[in-house]
Write a structure and sequence with these properties.
Glutathione S-transferase Yfyf (Class Pi), Chain A, domain 2, single chain, GST_UstS-like_C, Glutaredoxin, two-stranded antiparallel ribbon, 10 helices, Glutathione-S-Trfase_C_sf, about 55% helix, Glutathione S-transferase UstS-like C-terminal domain-containing protein
Length: about 230
């Protein structure tokens, strides 16, 4: 399994956590939520008839969570960005994550960020592994081993270069605010914060790794993290 594929595998879970912290919508009393283990994702998605999220490098279908079910239309929606788009259209009185027709641009940002931060996974996944439940450990062990960094010092350099690139994208808003689009947070900010949340959760706020990243790019990532403190 390629590192990028493994990154996609956990990417949607990270974003769902951040998204739910940014905005909320009214739901009926009958609604419920549940979490499932990694090896159960594909069988459940197939059982529910959920759409493919992507494909593995060998062409096999790739499924991911989160997903939601809307009884009013009798359908499931999967893929984080599609869920966000659906909820924004269904609940128009909530804050806008895709203002002024920026859905396409923000989708491209999402893909660019995934590619740019590839070095992160080889560094952090081995430290994430102990946090998994036993059934997921058995499933993820060979994948984590394959993704593990072969040269941590070099991958840290590559990760910082990647964050420098992301910082450059933010700077192009004319320095009008700390968010990608300026003064107002958007889907793109949630994508970035989902990675920051992941890093903080695995390595901890007192770790050297977290402190190092928080100091990069003039403290941009610390400021962005602080803006989403409730995550």
């Amino acid at each position: 399994m390629k590192t990028r594929s493994l990154s996609l595998y956990i990417h949607h879970r990270l974003i769902s956590k951040a998204f739910c912290s940014v905005d909320s919508v009214s739901i009926s009393k009958g609604c419920s939520s549940s979490r499932i283990e990694y090896p159960d994702i594909e069988p459940l998605c197939k059982k529910l008839g959920l759409r493919l999220t992507n494909k593995w490098p060998d062409g096999r279908p790739y499924y991911s969570h989160p997903s939601i079910y809307d009884p009013s239309i009798g359908a499931y929606i999967s893929d984080s960005i599609l869920i966000a788009e659906y909820l924004e259209k269904t609940y128009p009185d909530t804050s806008k994550l895709f203002p002024n027709g920026t859905t396409g641009v923000q989708s491209a940002f999402n893909e660019g960020l995934l590619a740019t931060l590839t070095p992160l996974y080889g560094l952090i996944l081995p430290d994430m592994f102990p946090h998994l439940n036993l059934v997921s450990k058995s499933y993820m062990a060979p994948r984590v081993e394959m993704a593990k960094s072969k040269d941590r010092a070099q991958d840290w350099i590559k990760l910082q270069e990647g964050m420098d690139q992301v910082d450059a994208w933010f700077v192009r808003n004319g320095r009008r605010g700390q968010f990608l689009l300026g003064e107002t947070s958007s889907w793109a900010d949630i994508v970035v914060v989902s990675f920051l949340f992941f890093i903080r959760r695995v390595w901890g706020e007192d770790s050297e790794e977290w402190k190092k990243i928080m100091a990069w790019n003039g403290g941009r990532w610390k400021n962005l993290s602080d803006a989403f403190k409730k995550i």
